[in-house]
Amino acid sequence: MSPVFYDIEASALNGFPIEIGWAQVNEIGHVVSESYLIRPVSSWDLKGNWDDNAEKLHGISKKLLLKNGIAVDEVAARMNNALRNRELFSDSGFDEAWLQQIFDETALTPSFIVRRTSCEVIIRNRATQLGTSGKSLRKLQHEASQLSPIRHRAEADACYWATIWKLIGS
């Protein structure tokens, strides 16, 4: 079973989560993914914890977030339903804290396991196990960046890692 790669975009480095996405390779070898904009809860300081530079990077405006974001309890419930008993990996240490913020706002406990091993380490380990050279891995990473060119959005970033996972095993 493929690991689940997840990513979170936030209002600022010390802010709150505004988008979550995850991706994995399914049993027939396709990358499948989901993502959700997260409507800020009243206890999150939308005005004080918003970084305009972060907005420029991910392209998610306050207006878009408030219009299209879904409730944090719906996001947590969807994650629990979709990711039950799965292992999740991220490429950033910030993501785990932001994920915890999501669940802290709900009465839910995650039904999945968050691993602290980074996506990059998981990918390198898989490449080593399957005999993929460093040069070949760099080529696959480049190919994955062509297949998932939009970056700094949660789903796209998660798809990038899942795509590398898939390419290594092809």
Largest sheet: 5 strands, mixed
| Structural class assignment | alpha/beta
Q: How confident overall, as mean pLDDT?
A: 94
Shape: globular
Low-pLDDT stretches are none
The helix tally amounts to: 7
Kindly estimate the percentage of residues that lie in beta strands according to DSSP: 15-25%
Rounded radius of gyration (Å): 16 Å
Distance linking N and C termini: 15 Å
CATH class: Alpha Beta
Second CATH tier, the architecture: 2-Layer Sandwich
Which bin fits the share of residues in helices?
40-55%
How many distinct beta strands? 5
What would CATH call the homologous superfamily? Answer: Ribonuclease H-like superfamily/Ribonuclease H
The CATH topology corresponds to: Nucleotidyltransferase, domain 5
Describe the structure.
This protein is an alpha/beta fold and 170 residues long. The protein has one domain: Ribonuclease H-like superfamily/Ribonuclease H (Nucleotidyltransferase, domain 5), CATH 3.30.420.10. It has seven helices and five strands. A five-stranded mixed beta sheet has the order 3-2-1-4-5. Strand 1 (4-10) and strand 2 (17-25) form a beta hairpin. Helix 5 (119-129) runs parallel beside helix 7. The longest helix is centred in the last third of the chain and has 16 residues, at 154-169. It is globular. It starts with a strand and ends with a helix.
